[in-house]
Each structure stands twice: as structure tokens, then as C-alpha cells.
User: Fold this.
Amino acid sequence: MKSGMRTNTLGLGTFCFGLLLSGCGSYYRHGLDPARVQEIEATVLAPAPAPSREREDQILALNPEHVTGREVREVLAGMPAPHFFNLHGGLARVIPRLVSFSEFLIGMGYPGQCITNPSDGTYSFSCYESADKIAGVVAWYYERDGLRPMLTGHSQGGMQVVKVLHRLAGKSPLHVWNPLTWQEEKRCEITDPLTGKFRPVAGLEVSFASALGAGGLTRMLPNQWDMNARLHDVPDSVEEFVGFCKEKDLLGGDYLGYGSANHFKATGRAMVRNVWLPSNYKHGSIPNTDHLLKSQQIRDWINAYKPSEEDVSHPQVNVSFDSDSSHILWAAEMWYTIKKHWVLELQHSIRAHRASHNDH
Assistant:
């Protein structure tokens, strides 16, 4: 019996080690020279013109729980948006799948510059990049934009998202990281753009985060060992969290994806939902979603989609579409929540600036 257990453990370890050797999905970040940094800051990252009072009133009138495609095109278009962080899994071949999802978001109306890493044009972070670094970049964007960023992670990237949330919720000092120079800055505080006051990076909240297919055999990889006991614990460093899982998921589901062992839960006040995707969705390819843009019928359905209010849901599609609709449920769940927090962050920023103006 003991010999059999050793054989099984060795087999799983060999399998996971093979995953690492089969094409590591890492980026080699190279900082830009000062002249190029200044150029990007003056162009790509230049502050958007302040919206008119009329446009602000239109944004404040939006219902975050029901943002239509027309409102995205006519009210949100051209407005700032929270920077959106994609965290991909451990293999190089999964990177194009997060590119596909990024192109889906852009096609639905989300600003491309709010998804792209400005120094190298990439759309994602690797699950092997330091959680402290990613948290520091989150702080860098919040200080610039005044809009709390959003994060999503696929497979090991989902585990890394939760790790980032735990880092932000901890008490250990975190440095600001500059995504143009890819250097750690010599400060652990930012100036909160909504209050003008200094605040530490540790303790910063993001508006929305999600994890897709996080767990399973990837728990055995050494870079994830420190998350094994708290993978499904969501701290207060995020306002809303959605965990996605599916049955028959060897790579991303505990106990092959069956049962409540895959459910995320709040450790405090965070709002947490768990969504079970159809078992025929394949773990590695779920983020492939840019094909959904080809059909206006599908785009309209996604824009009109509203998730269940239950803590644990099993959404279904009862419509026949005129085009390939694979992975539509994950795309619809994500787009709904991204739109929601885009509006909420803009509304919060507008109210904060108006209150500051009135005080002065």
C-alpha cells in the first residue's frame, strides 16, 4: 500500500515537472530608457481630458447592474477605465488564450490601453511573476488613474490572483513597481488620487477579481505551495470576487472539480460568487472568446446577460445562436461584472472629485 502511494505521488510529481519543462509561460521584462518612458507617459498614458458636466451626469445616471451595449458605446466610450490585469497559467501556449480574451473585451468596448502593458504591448502577466511586483503595479496604476484595478487569472494565474490579494491584505510593506522601467520604486506609499493623502500599498483594494480553474494538480507545483492552505480564502483586498470551476477538471479542479471543495469563500466583507461552468468546456481553452464578436446576436445576448444572485450558480444557455458560441457563459459572466465595476469606479471618482471641489 505504501509503495503504491509513493508511486502515485512520484507519478503526479513527474507529470507536474513535465508541465514546467514543456514550455514555461514566462515573460522577460526589459525596462525602457528614460526618453522612451517620457514619451509613453506623454502619449499612451497621458491623462484623458476631463469629461463634461453633462457626461458626468450621464455616467452617474447609469445603473451598474444593467449596463447596455448602447450605454457602453454612447456613454462609456472615451472614458477612463480601471486597468485590467490578465494573469495567464504556467505554459507558453496559454498566452494566446488571454490575448483572445483581451481582444474580446476590446471588441465589446473596453479601452485597449487599459488592458495592455505599455512597455512591451503584452496583454498579460505570468503566474511566475512575483505577487509583490504585481501588487506594486496595481498600486502604480491606481495612483495614476484613481480607479481601482481589476484582475483575472486562468489556471495557475488564478492561484496567483488570490496570492496577490493576500499580499495586498497583509501587513508587510509592499513597494510600488513601475511597469515602464520594471523597477521597484523606493517607496511603499502612494498618494491616493481621490483624497490627496498618503497611503501604504499594503491595504489597497481592487474592485473586482476572478479565478478560472484554479487548483487541481497545479497545487503540486513548488511556486504554489504557499497557497495550498488558503487558495479558496478571499480576503478584504477585493470588493467582488468570482470563482469559476467545472467538473472533470484534472488540472484546475480539486477532487477532479467535483464538490464544494472548489468553492471560494470570503474571510471578511468581500462579496464572493462561485460559478460552475459546463463540464464540456475544456480547461485550457476557456479564455478563447474573441470568436464571439463575429455574431451580433451573440454580442447582444452577452450585453443583456445578468448573473444569478446566488452564491453558487450553474448558468445555462437555452438559446440557439447563429455562430460559434463556445465559452459564452464565462465571457458573459466576466463582461457583466467588468462593466459593472467600470461604472462603479467612474461614479465613485466623479463623486469624490465633486466633493473635493465643493470643499474648496
Notes: The CA atoms of residues 91 and 136 lie 24 Å apart. The radius of gyration is 20 Å.
